[in-house]
């Protein structure tokens, strides 16, 4: 947008009196031209100031108006014939203005007082310019990280950091869960000798006894879930005479036992957790018969 100003000196005729907006009188017509095309060549007019030579305190600007498109100046207030008025008329085209936008970047580590931007403004008549900077705000908070030299238009930095400039704060709750690793072996509950008695000659699926182990890793995870298995130990030669419930540790017979054939049975009970890197606990047992009326099994914990 380009602007120009015109001073009009109005001497009112004798007998001039009160005028109103409805019966205003034309006192002057101004005209400005612009060689540009389109909106850049469309000129509009406005009154920016009016002074009364007889009365400096007179609200003179309210006594005149101008047609924005035609430049016709009218008197619409109470005046007297001996008064002289000076009217400042502004003519402006329809461009977007002399205001320009510039962009630059600044490192947060830049020293205080470093140059950020130099205004390229100049005056064709080489008049001295004065510079100012409007407040920079963020969410209605004034940012004071920069300062402008009013004489040179040079923009420099104050002491700031990107993280602390116009700082805001937020809070969050952090919950840290510690995951379990499989670092505990299954342990059998009893340190004492397990003694189980079984009569010979009984049918299969006779209960011998139950062994129980625990694992101190996280409950309800494969690290602490235990499976049981049973193996014979030398000098045992039995095949498939005993079985163990892999979930409960309950030991039962698979077939009838014969005291005369095998008086003592030795067992290796394995308790293994279900982790990928599984760990194992063991218990050993032997079965003895103090008499001939039956068979007795003893289990020892390793």
How would the blueprint of this fold be written?
Elements: E1 3-11, E2 25-29, E3 44-52, E4 64-66, E5 72-75, E6 84-92, E7 115-118, E8 136-138, E9 141-143, E10 146-148, E11 154-157, E12 187-188, E13 194-198, E14 207-210, E15 213-214, E16 226-232, E17 242-244, E18 250-253, E19 266-273, E20 280-286, E21 295-301
Antiparallel strand pairs: 1-6, 2-5, 3-6, 4-5, 7-11, 8-9, 10-11, 12-15, 13-21, 14-18, 16-19, 17-18, 19-20, 20-21
InterPro entries: Cadherin-like_dom, Cadherin-like_sf, Cadherin_CS
Domain Cadherin: 24-188, 190-284
Subcellular location: Membrane
Any overview of this molecule?
This protein has three domains: 3-92, Immunoglobulin-like, CATH 2.60.40.60; 105-166, no CATH class; 187-301, Immunoglobulin-like (Sandwich), CATH 2.60.40.60. A hairpin with a 6-residue loop joins β19 (266-273) and β20 (280-286). It has strands spanning 3-11, 25-29, 44-52, 64-66, 72-75, 84-92, 115-118, 136-138, 141-143, 146-148, 154-157, 187-188, 194-198, 207-210, 213-214, 226-232, 242-244, 250-253, 266-273, 280-286, 295-301. The chain has 302 residues and is mainly beta.
Strand order within the widest beta sheet: 13-21-20-19-16
DSSP, total strands: 21
The value of Rg in angstroms is 53 Å
Which stretches are low in confidence, meaning pLDDT under 50 for 5 or more residues running? 288-302
Fraction in helix? under 10%
Shape: rod-shaped
Overall number of structural domains = 3
The proportion of strand residues reads 25-35%
The span between the termini is 98 Å
CATH architecture of the largest domain: Sandwich
Main location: membrane
Protein name: Cadherin domain-containing protein
Domain Cadherin: 24-188, 190-284
GO cellular component, one term: plasma membrane
């Amino acid at each position: 947008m380009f602007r120009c100003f015109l001073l009009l000196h109005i001497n009112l005729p004798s007998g001039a009196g009160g005028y109103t907006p409805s019966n205003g009188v034309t006192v002057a017509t101004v005209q400005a031209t612009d060689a540009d095309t389109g909106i850049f060549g469309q000129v509009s007019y406005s009154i920016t100031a009016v002074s009364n030579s007889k009365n400096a305190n007179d609200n003179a600007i309210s006594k005149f108006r101008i047609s924005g498109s035609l430049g016709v100046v009218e008197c619409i207030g109470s005046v007297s014939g001996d008064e002289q008025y000076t009217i400042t008329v502004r003519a402006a085209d329809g461009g977007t203005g002399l205001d320009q936008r510039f962009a630059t970047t600044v490192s947060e580590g830049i020293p205080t007082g470093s140059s950020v931007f130099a205004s390229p403004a100049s005056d064709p008549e080489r008049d001295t310019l004065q510079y100012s900077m409007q407040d920079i705000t963020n969410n209605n908070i004034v940012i004071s990280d920069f300062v402008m030299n009013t004489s040179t238009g040079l923009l420099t930095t104050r002491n700031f950091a990107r993280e602390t400039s116009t700082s805001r704060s937020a809070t969050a709750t952090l919950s840290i869960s510690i995951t379990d690793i499989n670092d505990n072996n299954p342990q059998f509950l009893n340190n004492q000798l397990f003694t189980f008695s079984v009569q010979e000659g009984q049918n299969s699926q006779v209960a011998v006894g139950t062994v129980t182990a625990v694992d101190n890793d996280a409950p309800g995870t494969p690290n602490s879930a235990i499976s049981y298995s049973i193996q014979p130990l030398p000098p045992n030669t039995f095949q498939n005479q005993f079985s163990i419930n892999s979930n409960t540790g309950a030991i039962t017979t698979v077939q009838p036992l014969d005291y005369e054939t095998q008086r003592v049975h030795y067992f290796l009970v394995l308790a293994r957790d279900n982790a990928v890197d599984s760990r194992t606990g063991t218990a050993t047992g032997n079965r003895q018969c103090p008499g001939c009326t039956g068979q007795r099994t003893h289990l020892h914990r390793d």
